[in-house]
Design brief:
Largest interface: A-B, 44 and 44 residues
CATH topology of the largest domain in chain A: D-Amino Acid Oxidase, Chain A, domain 2
Largest sheet of chain A: 8 strands, mixed
Distance between the termini of chain A: 19 Å
Number of domains of chain A: 3
Number of domains of chain B: 2
Oligomer: heterodimer
CATH topology of the largest domain in chain B: FAD/NAD(P)-binding domain
CATH architecture of the largest domain in chain A: 2-Layer Sandwich
Radius of gyration of chain A: 22 Å
Helix content of chain A: 25-40%
Structural class of chain A: alpha+beta
Number of helices of chain A: 11
CATH superfamily of the largest domain in chain A: D-Amino Acid Oxidase, subunit A, domain 2
CATH class of the largest domain in chain B: Alpha Beta
Number of strands of chain B: 27
Distance between the termini of chain B: 58 Å
Number of helices of chain B: 7
Bound molecules: flavin-adenine dinucleotide
């Protein structure tokens, strides 16, 4: 698959997908190139899934501006895309008087930065909002706007929107070589050469390597791993806010939060790693997370653990977004989107589209676009409750722990961005993501996946 | 019969659910609905083609599917309606049952009684907190592997490591061979195998090394497992493999309990029941391995049959819904007992049957004896025996009938 495009976006994480969606609103030929066989299979698949307002980013930074804007747009645009949000609010809890002083100062700075809803609350209010946490909380910063979202469906919804509105998606195509020619670049992939007027590097952990292909070396990657525990849905009643420790300048600490799917999530740890591919959950990581649970929400330990996983922050040597437009070189770098990329995605996309059309190649806005939405996988939203009770396939459950139906699997497989692997199907539908991890349904789901994949390819 | 008309809803068509239904029909109950979310009835034994299923109940040497066929043949189709591909979403006090199925859509049923027979599952790798990478392929539980083999789904590997040494870990040796998998090692955390010693011999004859007092410390691989690292008495070792099978570590499938009014027993993670199989929620009974992990399919079948009898007695008014009764206290060394509670008999004679007792110790004891004490007085003392942690301890159910409603405690005294 080769061809000529105005814009080539390299990397289909949440950032690349959001940019593709944004550029699909313009009269531009855009291609989204991804190394792996599915979108959202890099950093974007392992995060805390908290929709930050920007109040926890360095004030005055580009990151702060884009995350605030990203949050605002997500709240406004996600419903039409079918993406669920639950604004449950967050409590940054002080457990002693030193921390109380930090929290008070933090709140004052946060309000001064424009986040006017953020207040300091006392113990009564803390225990009213989070009655099951350990005793001893003295004060907290309450941010009513912080929310939880679906991190898997988000890049998928963006990409589906982009593709529906004319963007080409090319997977299994790691960019291995970039050659400058008069009009732009030739990007070499095992599946052909792509000619593009400009390149947007959204390579996540691979960003510095892609930079090097273009001859740029403004930053080096400093990957930081973060590990998580996911507790069984039976624990959901124990917590209904995002519970955060008092942050330090470099680490926001281990948080505890409900997920949009109805589990309780604990994490992340923060470990500098040398190998950006070291997707390992470690004994010391697990121990640190369990210790935090024991300290802050000990009742969680009465519940089963559904999953463990980790994410790797694509940090660089500087704690900031590395968004670097190079109009002359026809190259735009969107790197270092470390720990807020999900929240910031729509803000980043708007900013980047502004750079592309404003400073790099121009492009007229299309008069209209097609609205696409994805099925909601949020807790409690099942097809038979959402108007599909009369459709037999939407009432036949295949994955019992998560209540995912035959109809949902079929729909995912019929998508223009159909999953090519069971792993991708899991991210699209949540099959086998529940407490049994495939004990009950794994064999049946795999057989179905293979049958539907075969039907599709003939 | 339409689901709405059911007098009794049995949730789960494994051995326990099927014998419950059969017993209900034998006692003249006419509208019994058995629902199962899987595509066919039979529960877990359906996927186990080796011998040894149902022995205590049928006294026959049968495979899992063989047992299922026998149990299904015994169902009276006039009285019992079997509905597969139907999920029970919730059970609420009343009892009220919420169902969803392709055939009937989303519906609510209000039967006079409900029997939970939802069985067990194995804890997956994640719940066991095993460190390492999470390759997309090659990490399985025995139950999943058995189902894949039974359903003809390719397993795709060549070299497997089996984690666990309970009975199922050894039964998987045969399944693995069937799937074209070479088991290159078994790993057990304890210092002995948890199954019968003869199972260890079989493994060794098959050339499978067993690493005891060892745990999995790391898993490597991107798309598929490439190796595991074991930590044991002789240090760390890496074993090249493409499949890791986590076996045993069973847990009741108790998803329906929150919101049902059923009290859960902490020691088993299953419903707390009395000797009739009554949970703490009026009209809701439980039978089979949902009560605890894990007994054989034969015992689950016996439990089902007895609970079925008791449900019939309840419907006929011969068994008044019992109150909580006496909780049998376990003293040091004992892990769990099912039934957890005993109520003074209020049945005039022969209408009900007590559940067999399922009892486990926390650790191996070379010689010990059980004693049942009520209000400080010994009610019963067992014979001296060797206690193995994973083996059922014999305690005749009739012993509980000697209780008079006082403070009852069961002791395991080393001798
Ligand atoms: C532990 C942790 C917790 C987090 N919590 C939150 C949170 O609560 N809220 C929040 O908003 N954010 C959070 N984040 C941050 C968020 O997950 C990231 O900022 C975001 O996912 C980054 O997206 P990306 O698109 O830049 O990277 P990626 O998702 O990694 O996308 C990059 C893509 O580029 C592809 N690629 C790489 N090289 C090439 C090549 N040569 N050719 C073609 N394709 C290539 C990769 O395969 C990949 O798919 C968290 C992150 C971590 C690690
Ligand atoms: C891997 C493995 C190997 C085993 N090997 C042996 C052996 O060799 N010999 C032996 O005697 N025993 C063996 N057992 C144990 C034996 O399978 C069980 O003891 C027996 O199946 C228990 O019967 P049950 O009826 O309690 O539960 P199950 O057989 O587990 O049946 C429960 C049924 O309930 C259904 N169900 C659950 N929840 C719902 C819901 N919400 N709605 C609708 N339906 C629901 C399930 O689909 C299932 O069909 C093995 C178990 C496993 C997992």
């Amino acid at each position: 698959m080769s061809g000529r495009y105005d814009v080539a976006i390299v990397g289909a994480g949440v950032v690349g997908c959001a940019i593709a969606r944004e550029l699909s609103r313009y009269e531009l030929r855009t291609i989204l190139i991804e190394a792996r066989s599915d979108l959202g299979d890099g950093v974007s698949k392992g995060n805390s899934a908290v929709l930050s307002t920007g109040a926890d980013t360095p004030f005055g930074s580009l990151e702060c501006k884009l995350v605030s804007r990203g949050h605002q747009r997500y709240v406004a645009e996600a419903p039409a895309m079918g993406l669920p949000i639950k604004a449950i609010g967050s409590l940054t809890v002080a457990w002693n008087n030193d921390e109380r002083r930090i929290v008070e100062q933090l709140q004052a700075e946060t309000v001064a930065a424009g986040f006017h809803d953020v207040v300091v609350v006392g113990a009564d209010e803390i225990y009213r909002r989070a009655p099951h946490i350990a005793p001893g909380a003295v004060a907290a910063m309450w941010d009513p706007e912080e929310g939880i979202v679906d991190p898997f469906s988000t890049p998928y919804a963006y990409a589906l929107d982009a593709v529906t509105n004319g963007v080409t998606f090319q997977d299994r195509s790691p960019v291995e070589k970039a050659e400058r020619n008069g009009a732009g670049w030739h990007l070499h992939t095992p599946r052909g050469v792509v000619e593009a007027g400009i390149v947007i590097n959204c390579g996540g952990l691979g960003a510095a390597k892609i930079e090097a292909l273009g001859g740029f070396s403004d930053f080096v990657m400093k990957p930081r791993r973060g590990q998580f525990l996911v507790f069984d849905k039976s624990a959901r009643t124990l917590l209904d806010v995002v519970l955060k420790p008092v942050p330090t300048p470099l680490y926001r600490g281990i948080l505890m939060t409900p997920t949009i799917f109805g589990n309780i999530l604990v994490g992340p740890t923060s470990e500098e790693i040398d190998d950006p591919d070291d997707w390992r959950v470690t004994q010391s990581g697990i121990d640190a997370l369990l210790a935090a649970v024991r300290r802050l929400l000990p009742q969680l330990l009465d519940h089963e653990i559904t999953a463990t996983y980790c994410g790797i922050r694509p940090g660089t040597e500087r704690p900031e977004y590395r968004i670097i437009p190079r109009p002359d070189e026809r190259w735009l770098t969107v790197g270092g989107i470390r720990s807020t990329g999900l929240s910031g995605s729509l803000g980043i996309a708007e900013h980047v589209a502004g750079l592309v059309v404003g400073e790099m190649i121009g492009g007229r806005r299309k008069p209209s676009h097609t609205v696409v939405s994805v099925p909601s996988l949020a807790a409690g939203e099942r097809p038979w409750l959402n108007g599909k009770a009369a459709d037999p396939e939407h009432c036949e459950i295949m994955c019992h722990c998560e209540g995912i139906t035959l109809g949902e699997i079929r729909e995912a497989m019929a998508s223009p961005l159909a999953p090519r692997s069971l792993k991708a199907l899991k991210r699209r539908t949540r099959v086998m993501f529940g407490r049994c991890q495939g004990f009950f349904c794994g064999a049946r789901v795999q057989a179905l996946f293979e049958r539907l994949s075969a039907e599709r390819s003939t | 019969m339409m689901p709405r008309d059911a007098e009794v809803v049995v949730v789960g068509a494994g051995p326990a659910g099927l014998t419950t239904a059969a017993a209900l029909a034998e006692r003249g109950v006419e509208r019994v609905l058995v629902v199962d979310r899987d595509d066919e009835a039979g529960g877990l034994p359906r996927f186990c083609s080796h011998l040894g299923f149902g022995w205590e109940y049928t006294h026959r040497l049968e495979t899992g599917p063989g047992l299922v066929r026998r149990l299904l043949r015994r169902l009276d189709s006039n009285a019992v309606t079997l509905l597969t591909r139907t999920s029970v979403l919730s059970v609420k006090p009343g009892p009220k049952v919420e169902l969803v199925s392709g055939r009937h859509g989303h519906m609510h049923v209000e039967p006079r009684a409900v029997v939970l027979a939802t069985g067990i599952r194995e804890r997956p790798r994640s719940a066991r907190l095993v460190p390492g990478k999470r390759p997309a392929q090659g990490i399985l539980t025995t139950g999943q592997l058995q189902q894949m083999v039974a359903r003809g789904v390719p397993v795709g590997g060549r070299r497997a490591v089996v984690v666990g040494t309970e009975h199922v870990a050894f039964s998987i040796l045969l399944t693995a061979r069937h799937a074209g998998l070479d088991v290159v090692a078994m790993v057990g955390a304890e210092d002995r195998i948890m199954s019968y010693a003869v199972a260890g011999l079989v493994a060794r004859t098959m050339g499978v090394p067993i690493h005891l007092s060892s745990t999995v410390d790391d898993i490597q691989g991107a798309d598929r497992v490439e190796s595991v690292a074991l930590r044991g008495p002789s240090g760390q070792r890496s074993i090249a493999c493409d499949t890791v099978i986590f076996s045993g570590d069973f847990i009741p499938d108790a998803a329906l309990m929150p919101g049902s009014g059923i009290a859960v027993a902490a020691a088993t993670s299953g419903p707390s029941v009395d000797q009739y199989g009554c949970t703490s929620a009026p009209g809701i009974f439980a039978a089979g391995n949902v009560l605890r992990a894990v007994e054989s399919s034969g015992l689950a079948a016996i439990e089902g049959a007895r609970v079925g009898t008791n449900v019939a007695a309840y419907l006929e008014g011969l068994l008044a819904w019992p109150d909580v009764g006496t909780c049998i206290r376990l003293t040091e060394g004992l892990a769990y007992i099912v039934p957890q509670r005993w109520v003074p008999t209020n049945d005039s004679g022969y209408a009900t049957r007590s559940l067999p007792i399922s009892l486990r110790a926390l650790a191996d004891v070379p010689r010990a004896r059980l004693r049942l004490i009520e209000n400080g007085k010994e009610v019963w003392a067992g014979r001296e025996m060797k206690v193995l942690r994973h083996r059922r301890l014999a305690l005749p159910a009739a012993i509980l009938d000697r209780l008079r409603g006082g403070d009852a405690a069961l002791h395991l005294d080393p001798v």
